[in-house]
Design a protein that fits this description.
This protein is α/β, with parallel strands linked by helices. The protein contains 8 helices and 7 strands. It starts with 6 loop residues before the first helix and ends with a strand. The structure holds S-adenosylmethionine. The site of S-adenosylmethionine has 18 residues, from loops.
């Protein structure tokens, strides 16, 4: 697991962060999902963070949970449970009320098996809150295999036994294009110069994103946020 940034940076990125706008939108979408789907359940939940990294979004879920399990590869010392070979989790079936998976699906060697394992540990009608990339640069952690189209992501979620409740895109075409332009240039610069590029570019990305409707973003986006329910 890479420790490029702390969970706090991911949750509250500083203005000069080259992912500022995207991380802000991602947090907003996760907060929206919590408000819409979890806050009304009126019970304390068992939540698994599958591919937890440093569990950046744990503080957002904590008010609603009685147990929060961070699950990750054996090389992540911050995980409560380490994944067994072949991607299995050492948990019984139907244990967890919610599985969250933020920016993991593009990294797993077999997305179908990963989603089946998330499905297995969920209770009947348990919720999957998953985010993954549409367009993004190559970023192994420790591997990087996939990018999703909205249709491809819907298909694999439904084929693994989930009912899709929502799929929403973050950063529409032109905003995403500009993010890629920024990323194509920024890593050529020494770190102390990067804020001089990232601050104006993030502002431009923010403005460009306003030219897209949410419907357009739901088709073509930098990142997709999926809410799905385990079918009985
Ligand atoms: C980009 S990080 C995201 C971490 C965290 N969820 C977040 O939002 O910051 C990708 C994570 O996926 C984990 N990962 C990679 N392959 C995996 C697999 N086969 N099964 C579960 N997690 C995996 C990595 O160890 C890493 O923690």
């Amino acid at each position: 697991m890479k420790d490029r940034e702390t969970g706090i940076t991911r949750l509250n990125p500083p203005l000069w962060n080259s992912r500022y706008y995207y991380l802000w939108q991602l947090r907003k979408e996760i907060e929206r999902a919590i408000k819409k789907y979890l806050s009304c359940l009126g019970k304390k939940l068992r939540i698994a963070d599958f591919g937890c990294g440093n569990s950046p979004y744990k503080p957002l879920f904590e008010p609603f949970c009685k147990e929060y399990l961070g699950i990750d590869l054996p090389e992540n010392p911050k995980a409560t449970i380490h994944i067994l070979p072949e991607g299995k989790i050492n948990l019984l079936d139907n244990q967890m009320d919610v599985v969250i998976s933020t920016q993991v699906l593009e990294h797993v060697p077999n997305p179908h098996h990963y989603l089946l394992e998330a499905h297995r540990i969920l209770t009947a009608e348990g919720l999957l809150i998953l985010t993954t990339h549409g367009y993004w640069i190559y970023h192994p952690d420790p591997t990087d295999f996939w990018r999703w189209t909205s249709a491809g992501l819907k298909k694999i979620i439904q084929e693994t036994g989930f009912e899709l409740l929502e799929l929403r895109g973050i950063l529409g075409r032109s905003a995403m294009g500009m993010q890629l332009v920024q990323d194509g240039l920024i890593f050529k610069l020494p770190s102390f110069l990067r804020p001089f590029l990232s601050i104006p570019m993030q502002l431009l990305i923010f403005l460009l994103d306003k030219t897209h409707s949410q419907n357009a973003r739901n088709q073509d986006a930098c990142t997709f946020v999926v809410i799905a329910k385990k079918q009985k």
